[in-house]
Amino acid sequence: MGTSISGIRGDRLSSADYEKNFSDLHPPLDRHQALVAADRCYFCYDAPCMTACPTSIDIPMFIRQISTGNAVGAAKTIFDQNILGGMCARVCPTETLCEQACVRNTAEDRPVEIGLLQRHATDTAMEKNIQFYPRPERTRHRIAVVGAGPAGLACAHRLAMNGHDVIIFDARVKPGGLNEYGIATYKTTDDFAQREVDYVLAIGGIEIRNGQKLGRDFTLGELAENFDAVFLGIGLAGVNALRIEGEQLSGVEDAVDFIAALRQVEDKADIAIGRRVVVIGGGMTAIDAAVQAKLLGAEEVTICYRRGKEDMNASEFEQELATSKGVMIRHWLQPKRVIGKDGKVAGIEVEYTEMQDGKLQGTGETGILAADQIFKAIGQTFDPTCVPNLRLDGGRIAVDAEGKTSMARVWAGGDCVKAGEDLTVTSVAQGRDAADSINRALAAAANPAVAVA
Amino acid sequence: MADLRNTFVGIKSPNPFWLASAPPTDKAYNVERAFKAGWGGVVWKTLGEEGPPVVNVNGPRYGAIWGADRRLLGLNNIELITDRPLQVNLQEMKQVKMNWPDRALVASIMVPCEENAWKSILPLVEETGADGIELNFGCPHGMSERGMGSAVGQVPEYIEMVVRWCKQYTRMPVITKLTPNITDIRKPARAAKAGGTDAVSLINTINSIVSVDLDTFAPTPTVGGKGSHGGYCGPAVKPIALNMVAEIARDPETYGLPISGIGGITTWRDAAEFLALGAGNVQVCTAAMTYGFKIVQEMISGLSDWMDEKGHRSLDDIIARAVPNTTDWQYLNLNYVAKAHIDQDACIKCGRCHIACEDTSHQAITALVDGARHFEVIEEECVGCNLCVNVCPVENCITMNALPAGSIDRRTGKPVDPNYANWTTHPNNPMARQAAE
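ok -> structure tokens follow
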């Protein structure tokens, strides 16, 4: 079974190969491996790893707990700061966050395996379905959360922890946001995103309404009127276009749609992939698309990025992962024109680029890469039409340090605000912190005397 | 190449590494393997008197504590002396000694505290051709409940009496093995010497409970739901053993008495330290029980290479070299001033030195300098305690540097006095003032 004939088609591999290719990228540590890995932690003072974590997880503490046989206690240490610690353990670019800061790098060029240890702890607690946070007495405050992605879920959980009732509105069929639709399949296997949503919701007091899209099914004004507070975690709905000739040809696709389809499909053989695939872009999405194209059986996968290696948003680790899977990464190439044949993609004309006087420019030298499928991964954009009354900053929702928007009783966090890193873990931190801010605001409003005093 | 040949109370062996009386030396099969691996000698596992042999428990005999990565740091055992018939052991000893004439073979013995018991076993042992005997006055579990082992070792008068019997009834050199489960190790050593012993060996194992099973609430090793204290050994006991060896080595009453050093010796370096503190040779058990007999090859090459590097030609060049430098606290130089120094190039910025000093000592190490993570000694506060050196995970990153005489100690603001001065003459010492009057 399997085929390498041209065109865009499924069934390129045997079912065994599909299964192998899309299995867990980093298999979990077993108990012994976790103890060995935990032994390497120095329990640093004011640990650099903890500072590097956007959610400030007490990493030395949870690793020490693992090392003493208390993986469940370790999970609580993690969840106290990051209720989506299970997903973050899988998808965080730890090589540029906690593990980059690990002092073991200085000593021996090999950090403590923090991500894998975090997964060990959170998996242990989640497998036993241990809930650490009892739902307190209800406050009767109702809060609307828009978007059931990392920011929205983190916000909702923290609000529920404080006794508030939360309704999450999400446009998609399933909750989870990018955790469910935007992450490479091999990073989150076994339907982990949905299991995690269930784990988070188990606290109680959170209702999710799927298929409810802001701006289509309800407005921000309605929410602000009907709820005590609103949190927007609506992510980035738009995708940048190449704006070149031939973009409309069959075979030119958005990488995010490809990644989402892969996550949702039952049988990977149903996903059609080209024999020769070109991915345009230099971020995590480009890598995820390229690697998975290769894993689906594409014979030749090339990433074209218009700048140099050091400019790529994809981490060094991700780049190495791609090349190890056989993806070719080419730098200093920008797309000029998609070449079609019979209405389908046949190739892409690219132009070499260079930096001139601090500006990226084409050199005029062009070439053609044969391709039957092209994925666009040149960035996602915030679609502001659903929040017409909010002040924007850099094309995204403007917020203050606590996540408050320009509109009273409306907070926002995650990729839809301008803070920058577009990471799951950053979104979690913003959702959590916005919830704390909402909680403080509600408490102050309920008890103005205390607030004045 | 350094000469590792060893002569201990007249017993010759090609190197100073003996296996201690313990499970590894219980029978010919093990001892033959040990000699093939290169061990210089063995002390055969303790023989009891003729008759029905002792019995051991049929459940776990060992318990342990571990360090990082489950490295065994301390081992505890509740095994008794040999549980094989005396005649079998004697025959095997004789055969092994014939097969390996260049290796030391010493018989450990433990029989009741009666003259006849000792008088009758000694000729049997002598007949095997064994090079010497070691009196087991150390075993702290099981046998001690029957008035033997450490029950004898804890009563100096008994030690002296039994040693005297042994010296009377055998021509073999007598090594008296001491228990550490006493308050002052010098007392049993002096008693052994008074009885005429040729040497002492120490330490035997320390009374211990290594852990409690928190599910069954029973000490480990647990035999049918109950646990008993055992004898503790392995790397964890080395510091205790070193001190006891040194105590005997520098005691004027036992000065010069040969010592066979035992207690947690795992590497050549451990062995060299015992030799330096006055041991004439060393005995090893736990390290072999952890890693097998091959470790002796590391010990031999390590000791030899170190001696070559330092220009020591024979063991006599190193034995007891550290004894003159081992003294009482009251004679330490109170005018010696050292300060910690952190090598910033070696520092990995874990901050353990800071938090140890900040929380538990003298607030003498920074965490931030000009807003940046930076660990540096504040000499005005540093008392030179060495804690930071001990908690630092990087070897030689933090060092203790002596202040030169005449330089200013920034903690006291006073110049470092070049003269030696100790507590016995210190003005704060009431005894010193009395002496001066």
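Chain B has a mean pLDDT of 96.
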